[in-house]
Specification:
The protein has ten helices and twelve strands. It has 326 residues and is of the alpha/beta class. β1 (36-41), α2 and β2 form a beta-alpha-beta unit. Bound molecules: beta-D-fucofuranose. Beta-D-fucofuranose is lined by residues 45-46, 48-49, 122-123, 139, 177, 205, 232, 234, 259-260, 280.
Length: 326
């Protein structure tokens, strides 16, 4: 009885909480009139994430897709529960951004058994099972790490540095961007003997954690730090005031490298307090809608779709950077 009630409550909240966010006014029916897409978002931890949610909502309206969107507030169990509700509701397509890579086999097997195709948005999963998902629409995080490392090598050359001490503030442990941004960066600097990573520390993609990590790193290594490589803008923006409080000038005393390219970070780049921001676009909504429409029509889709991304840095005139929109 309790179980049934909890399920019904969850089911109702999915319906009432999510549909107003899409701007859809009329009650949605899962019939042949339209495509019903269930999307489980990770949370609201960053400007990137908020921009990604907004883009998906706007594109669902542009494409006439009925969107059920749920915010998991940074919890994998909430994402698993949301996917189960989408299955119970018999949506046409499920999409989700997995907060971490592991732990999805059971719920995705349930989706597969129900015959509902699943699209990975933004982040990947790690599994031994086949055909649990149809495709991944998201950035090439490994390449973002490589671009960050290559920038650092150019910067060290231009400053004539003979030794470079790096501290790395990483994103959510075991998430795809954390794993791949770390690996790409490490590979890019591996053959440069000037480079030493003093420590990598988990900042969970959060501004508050970025500040906390920075306080610890300054206490531990203060005058030794030449570079901060931060896996997202939020953690960078949390770290900068801590550097200034310690009497150091970010962008001059310490080279600051960030990832995402949200407007706030670009504004700080323009002030000279960030040296480099590798772009990671949150605008994945158009590809998501087009892919979902194709899947409903039974068409083939590409297994991986990566957006093209660029690097913003003090090597260019920052005034040339167009407004970012997130
Ligand atoms: O870099 C970060 C967000 O998965 C690409 O998640 C995304 C990352 C993004 O919270 O700001």
């Amino acid at each position: 009885m309790r179980k049934t009630l909890a399920f019904a409550m969850g089911f109702l909240s999915a319906f009432f909480i999510t549909f107003p966010m899409t701007g859809c006014q009329k009650k949605q029916e899962n019939n042949d009139e339209g495509l019903l897409l269930g999307f489980s978002q990770i949370g609201s931890e960053s400007a990137w994430r908020i921009g990604n949610t907004k883009d998906i909502e706007e594109q669902s309206v542009n494409y006439g897709v009925n969107l059920m969107i749920e915010n998991a507030n940074q919890k994998q169990e909430n994402q698993i529960a949301a996917i189960r509700r989408f299955i119970a509701y018999k949506v046409d397509v499920i999409a989700f951004s997995p907060i971490v890579e592991d732990g999805w086999d059971n719920v995705l097997t349930e989706a597969k058994d129900a015959g509902i195709p699943v699209i990975l948005v933004d982040r990947d999963i790690s599994t031994d099972k086949e055909d649990l998902t149809t495709c991944l629409i998201g950035a090439d995080f490994y390449n973002e790490g490589v671009m960050a490392g290559e920038y650092l090598i150019r910067k060290a050359d231009s400053l004539g540095l003979d030794h470079v001490n790096i501290v790395e503030i990483t994103g959510t442990e075991n998430s795809t961007p954390m794993r791949q941004r770390q690996a790409g960066f490490a590979d890019a600097i591996a053959n440069d003997e000037r480079m030493t990573v003093l420590e990598s520390i988990d900042g969970d993609f959060l501004k508050s954690r970025g500040a906390e990590c920075m306080r610890y790193l300054l206490d531990t290594y203060k005058d030794e730090i030449d570079v901060i490589y931060s896996h997202n803008d939020e953690m960078t923006l949390g770290a900068l005031p801590e550097i200034e409080s310690a009497g150091l000038v970010p962008g001059k005393d310490i080279i600051i490298i960030s990832i995402d390219g949200g407007q706030e970070a670009i504004d700080v780049l323009k002030e000279g307090k960030i040296n480099c921001v590798v772009e990671c676009t949150p605008k994945l909504g158009r590809e998501l809608m087009e892919t979902a429409i194709k899947l409903k029509a039974g068409e083939e889709v590409d297994s991986v779709i990566h957006p093209i991304e660029q690097v913003f840095s003090d090597e260019m005139n920052p005034e040339d950077i167009a407004p970012r929109g997130y």
